[in-house]
Amino acid sequence: MTTPTNIRSHSDEETRPPVNPDCRELFTGFFKLGISAFGGAMPLAHRILIEERAWLTHDEFVDQLGLCQFLPGSNVANLAVALGGRFCGWRGALSALAGLVITPTVIVVALSTLYARYQNDPLAHRLFNGLACAAAGLLIQMAYKLLRPIIRRPRKIALAAACCVAIASLRLPLVMTLAIMVPISIAVSGRDGSGQ
Amino acid sequence: MSGTVETLLYLAAICGKLSLLSFGGAVSVLPELQREVVINHHWLSARDFSALYALCQASPGPNVLIYALIGWRLAGLAGVLTCTIMTFAPTALLTAVALKGWNHYQHHPWRQRIQTGLAPVTVGLIAAAAVLLSRSTADSWPLAGIVALSALLAIKTRLHPLYILLGSALIGLLC
User: Is pLDDT larger for residue B39 or for residue B115?
Assistant: First the structure.
């Protein structure tokens, strides 16, 4: 489903003995992932964690990913917790999560300080406007990518449209929207998937 | 001082709640975060919110950094720490717990049903995020053009998102 497309030498990963990282390696592995991930870390996660470090096989990765996408929260952060926990218990989970999050947080805070200082400068203002437009455009692409697999299913489209209108136009609270839409969606479209 | 503590408590509650509701990744709760921060609490303008999200896109790391950034904006270092912990701790605990049951339930029919059932909701929420952010940034024709162009390039080409952000920032300078 969301399997990255650039999977190399699939079969020899299967036979390669997986490496068991310690806390320090978990930290550095997810540190590398965190600071090199721009707009979507998952394809990169495959390359760094499987192809470079061989911590787990492709199939194990897809399996873990399924859990991390199923649960709420950032998918990469969930992956860090799941893999860290699997290799080194709660210390491993904490190391991986810290490696993933700390440096990008410092970078983004530094950038926002620059933004706060120069936002009234007309030139910087226009620069940030352009940047915000691109961010909006990238969100449109993300929505489009998710919409494509269900585009020929009118009931699913109707459900997605109802959620979108409830949140974006009516500005209903999320909890209320989810409390109404999730049961309906599972009742209506949950059967679609298994019956295919 | 008590104002700061109150802000921190609100931030902790918002981050914790949204973290546990963000099915399909952090972006799906972006509209709710905007509703809380912009409409309910008037902490930021819609435009500032979009700018902060854009900064998260332009920096490395997961998109959830928007929470830390809002914490920083409202309450400095204490805000960053509060938001970071409350964004990751609840879902980390959930993941740790779920990890144990996952192998057992992975192929159960109800899990499949929930997953396929959630998909349209997630799509709707992310589309709502796209609508809201486009609406608050594209308030002139040239800016709307940049939004459309970025979306088109991202969909049609395999251009790295960083180039799209960079190019749009430069076009923004000319507008």
Answer: B39
In a domain, B64, yes or no: yes
Whether B124 is covered by a domain: the verdict is no
Q: Quick check: A21 and A55 in contact, CB under 8 A?
A: yes
Per-residue pLDDT tens for B52-89? 998 988 888 888 899 999 999 999 999 999 999 999 99
- pTM of the entire predicted model: 0.84
From chain A, the residues in CB contact with B115 under 8 A are: 70, 193
B119, A189 Cβ separation under 8 angstroms: yes
**pLDDT tens, residue by residue, B81-132:** 999 999 999 999 999 888 877 767 767 788 778 878 888 998 999 999 999 9
Residue of chain A whose Cα is closest to the Cα of B46: A132
The pLDDT tens digits of the residues spanning A154-170 come to 999 999 999 999 999 99
Q: In this structure, is residue B135 part of a structural domain?
A: no
List the single residue in B62, B137, B154 with the smallest CB-CB distance to A132.
B137
Give the count of domains, chain B: 1
- Owning domain of residue B80: 2-109
Q: Is residue B40 part of a domain?
A: yes
Distance of alpha carbon A13 from the chain centroid: 23
Compute chain B's Rg from CA coordinates: 18
Share of chain B above pLDDT 90, in %: 65
Chain B residues with beta carbon closer than 8 angstroms to that of A88:
none
Tell which wins on pLDDT, B5 or B26.
B5
Q: How far lies B13's CA from each of A125, A162, B86, B92, in Å?
A: 32, 27, 8, 16
- Greatest CA separation for chain A: 58
Residue B44: half-sphere exposure toward Cβ, Cα within 13 Å:
24
Give A76 to chain B, closest Cα distance, Å: 7
Instruction: Name every chain A residue with its beta carbon within 8 A of the beta carbon of B111.
Output: 70
